[in-house]
Amino acid sequence: MTAARILRPQAVLFACARNIVRSPMAAAMFSHYFGRNTYVRSAGVRAGEPDPFATEVLDEIGLDMSKHKPMTFEELEDWEGLNFDLIITLAPEAHHRALELTRTLAADVEYWPTPDPTAHEGSRAQRLDAYREVRDMLLRRIKERFGTPAG
Fold first, then answer.
1. 115, 131 in Cβ contact below 8 A?
2. What class, spelled out in words, does domain 11-146 have in CATH?
3. For residue 72, what is the enclosing H or E element?
4. Can you tell me the distance from the alpha carbon of 85 to that of 139, in angstroms, rounded to the nearest whole number?
5. How far is CA 86 from CA 51, 60, 100, 148, in A?
6. In the chain, where are the structural domains located?
7. What confidence tens digit (pLDDT) does each residue in 90-129 have?
8. Looking at the whole model, is its pTM more than 0.90?
9. Residue 27: CB atoms within 10 Å
10. In whole angstroms, what is the distance from residue 13 CA to residue 84 CA?
11. Model confidence over 25-71: pLDDT tens digits?
């Protein structure tokens, strides 16, 4: 991290493959802790459908993601533009897409490799555990990168 990099940017975009698990969970947690001072959104490379396991594991920590509507980069750009200081990518294809965007956007891009819990097989409990691991990993990364929330 360079000395010139802003510790907490004005606008952050979390991005993953389908905007159904990793990026909306990260955006919901970031928004909960830092949303008063920082604009946050999430997007995916491809369209996806809402994931009930992601909603459930966020509900366990008191955050509501039930109204999340998955959105692609293109849909977000059409809806409100892509005016972000920082794009945090959680999947390789999202990282490549974000790097393409920096040809025309003045945004920093950070890659936080994050496993996709939808690929985990097993019982319902085992699958939920995979989602919890991703949730907890993202929350740790958010706190490491942006500091512990005040209050």
1. no
2. alpha beta
3. none
4. 20
5. 25, 28, 14, 19
6. 11-146
7. 999 999 999 999 998 889 999 999 999 999 999 999 999 9
8. yes
9. 25
10. 6
11. 999 999 999 988 899 999 999 989 999 999 999 999 999 999 999 99
- Tell me which amino acid residue 94 is: A
- SS3 state of residue 108: strand
Which residue reads 């830092």 in tokens?
34
β-pairing, 108-111 with 11-16?
unpaired
- Tokens, residue 87: 């794009």
Classified as helix, coil or strand, 101 is helix
Q: What is the DSSP letter of 83?
A: -
d(CA 45, CA 94): 6
Strand order in the sheet with 86-89: 39-44, 11-16, 86-89, 108-111
3-state SS, one letter per residue, for 11-65: EEEEEECCCCCHHHHHHHHHHHHHCCCCEEEEEECCCCCCCHHHHHHHHCCCCCC
